[in-house]
Write a structure and sequence with these properties.
407 residues, disordered C terminus
Length: 407
């Protein structure tokens, strides 16, 4: 009861961050629904569409540390509001696209820039600043869980509009939903008036941005976590981008793709809540490694067997539970290692690695499909790298003698 009262002043901030993250991630995770009709209508290859998604992920990743540093200088509210505007603009450009260039500009550059200002790293940094350290991990899990609720609305809506009125109507429907990010970003921006809570771990609150970056890049635990995050991004974007195409190739009903993405979103709520709760009790890095191993085993099982509607929805449920639970764990680990002031920037550095992996998952998967006519090699590579990354993360998280921090 006391914990709930302690969180009450932060509720508007947390709700705003959760809604902003939910809409941004839900829309972005449903872009794969438009790939089959868009590529047919514009007479472009699958690799051309996945190139746009790959550009989105690179823009998001490389701009994320800049957005995090800028939020420290000018405040979170201006950064998040700008991101919401860029999101709507990107969807409008995509809805009126006439070729690969405008698809890449809208779905790639503009949406990538928007996500750098509104998605996981920024939303998690906002939530971390708004609550006491004792409730931080659980609250991060709650906000991360909200990041999947958007796909429960976006995926069925986009599929319904695309089937009834064409893919352009589906993208315009997404643009209308994205307008809701503006009031959410405004509410979350109240965090700019919150005094930072007492930092934990090896806080860098008294250092410059350059010193904080150097400290992060010389911390072995951070580097291992960042490398495993690369594989995480590769797996997730491969699934969200190519699952609709794979199911269509196997002769499944197109609506099954939307249902699978919606199930991923629904079970991601449970997974994010669980891993947010678990991160407050056990080693965050051990949980991360275990998640990567389990995710890779589920991926191998699904692609090694012929898909059915039941197996597809079961796969979506298992994968959804293991989806965005990485968010609260990585955000919490960064806060513990480096404190809160530069959390968004340092988490953005880790996320940059995630997005390079996402680039390979989206574009590389498309290239392999165009070259080989199947996804066999793509999913095998994803499974092998996931198992290796997860095992390394778990091994490195085993208890080891404490090392003095060099100032």
């Amino acid at each position: 009861m006391r914990d709930i009262k302690a969180l009450r002043p932060a509720l508007p901030i947390l709700v705003g961050a959760a809604v902003m993250l939910s809409l941004g991630m839900g829309l972005r995770q449903s872009f794969g629904l438009f790939m089959p009709p868009l590529t047919r209508d514009l007479s472009i290859a699958v690799a051309d569409f996945t190139l746009a998604i790959a550009v989105q992920n690179l823009a998001w990743g490389f701009l994320q540390p800049i957005a995090g540093a800028l939020a420290v200088r000018v405040g979170f509210r201006p950064v998040m509001l700008a991101g919401a505007v860029f999101y709507v603009a990107g969807l409008l450009v995509m809805a009126h696209a006439q070729g690969v260039i405008t698809v890449t500009l809208g779905a790639g550059v503009l949406v990538g820039l928007a996500l750098a200002c509104t998605a996981t790293a920024i939303a998690m940094a906002v939530a971390s600043r708004a609550v006491p350290p004792a409730q931080r991990s659980l609250v991060l899990g709650l906000v991360s869980a909200a990041g999947s609720i958007g796909s429960l609305v976006a995926a069925p809506l986009g599929q319904m509009l695309a089937e009834g009125y064409g893919w352009r109507a589906g993208v315009l429907g997404f643009a209308v939903l994205a307008i809701g990010m503006l009031p959410a970003a405004w509410a979350a921006g109240r965090v700019d008036r919150v005094t930072l809570r007492a930092p934990v771990g090896d806080a860098l609150d008294d250092r410059s941005a350059g010193a904080a970056v150097r400290a992060a890049l010389t911390r072995p635990a951070f580097l291992i976590m960042t490398g495993a995050y690369f594989v995480c991004g590769m797996q997730l974007i491969f699934i969200s981008t190519h699952l609709p195409s794979y199911l269509a190739l196997c002769g499944m009903d197109p609506m099954l793709s939307a249902e699978a993405l919606a199930v991923i979103g629904g079970f991601n709520v449970l997974g994010s809540l669980f891993f947010g709760w678990a991160g407050g009790r056990w080693s965050k890095q051990t949980l991360l490694g275990t998640m990567y191993v389990c995710r890779s085993l589920v991926l191998a099982w699904f692609f090694m067997t012929a898909p059915t509607p039941a197996s597809t929805l079961l796969f979506a449920a298992l994968m959804g539970f293991l989806w965005l639970g990485v968010g609260p764990l990585i955000a919490g680990a960064v806060a513990e290692m480096f404190g809160l002031r530069w959390q968004a920037m340092i988490q953005g550095i880790a996320f940059m690695s995630h997005q390079v992996g996402s680039f390979l998952g989206a574009f590389g998967g498309g290239l392999l499909f165009d070259a080989l006519g199947s996804y066999d090699l793509a999913w095998r590579l994803g499974v092998g790298m996931g198992l290796a990354a997860g095992a390394l993360q778990v091994m490195f998280a085993l208890p080891r003698p404490a090392q003095p921090v060099t100032r």
